[in-house]
Amino acid sequence: MSPQALPQRLSLVAQTVAYLKGQIDSGEWRDWLPGERSLCQTLQVSRNTLRTALRQLEDERRVERIHGTGNKILPQRETVTGLPQSGHVALLSPEPIERLRPMHTLWLDEIRAMLSERGLKLRFFHGRSYFVSKPDAALQRLVTRNHHGCWILIMADDNVQRWFADNGVPCVVAGSTHAGVDLPSRDLDHRAMCRHAAGVLLGLGHRRMVLLTHKSPRAGDLESEASFVEGVKQSHRSEAEAIVMYHEDTVAGVGVAVRRLLKMTPVPTALLVLRPHHYLAVATRLMQKGVRIPQDISMISRDDDPFLSFVAPTPTRYEVNPHMMAQTLLQIVLEVAGGTMISQRELRLSPKFLRGESIAAPATLPLPGGAALRD
Description:
Blueprint: E1 8-10, H1 12-25, H2 36-43, H3 47-59, E2 63-66, E3 70-73, E4 89-93, H4 102-117, E5 122-126, H5 136-145, E6 150-154, H6 158-166, E7 171-174, E8 185-188, H7 190-204, E9 208-214, H8 219-233, E10 241-247, H9 251-262, E11 270-273, H10 276-288, E12 298-301, E13 316-319, H11 322-338, E14 346-349, E15 352-354, E16 364-366, E17 372-374
Parallel strand pairs: 1-14, 4-5, 4-6, 6-7, 7-8, 8-14, 9-10, 9-11, 11-12, 12-13
Antiparallel strand pairs: 2-3, 13-15, 16-17
């Protein structure tokens, strides 16, 4: 993949711009932006970051800075309000909404409310029949019978993404796109997260690490596996080893994987688990077998969910604000639904690293020459 084709990582300034635009577009702020001090406190950003974002909005003629008064919101040409029924938005998922992860439902509630404020409805469609190896007939019937200005694809595999791209159906991928699929998308920066996780564990002294996941066809998960392995290989630690281990997407399947892991020689000293519910299953299985976290094995969860705040020891994880995710997704959905020029096709949000109590230096610290030192 050429450098030009790589997805753009959403910087702190860009996240701030996206938030400000979202608040303006939703009508939360109508005439003037809040004061700079208030915005800095709300967004938890420095004044320099905020002012850089405000300058970008000035350049785009979204706001006008009036000395001594503040930032005036400039009127924009309406592009979405007043769309016919076909202008409404649909979301397609393999699972019903009650079975989605809590983090998914949080940003879905946010974007539903944001669309409603603009007079748009969000309709929810789900079914495994749309996520099979040959989904063409099922998807054709679905889209033909339900005309919408934009479809949001969640947890979409390669087959679903390619069908929407090949048939020119207006849509946005809430996730990462597969190689060769040209669709607008918004997601977390899984590549950066997993490389960072590898670096954190290496920095603590871990040299035998496992990425534990169920076999997933999602592009973000495939990126995670590759980047974790790359992060370890490129660390110049010749003794460092990254292993990808798969498990069935069940509690029993996780238990089988934990037993396999503990039979490895030597036993890994650190784990990166992608899904938060899998993290909980792994942690409880390890504790049942007398394995201490982090004294015996360190653990990181790539994804976050609210319930992890109640797990002890507190999991180390990557946190994203669901409101920010919804705001970022809203902007591109409105552009697609309104038939306007798409500003940026691919953006990746940078989550916040939350260092919990689940990681520590390994009990056995490797020394040059293959010797080991016990704590």
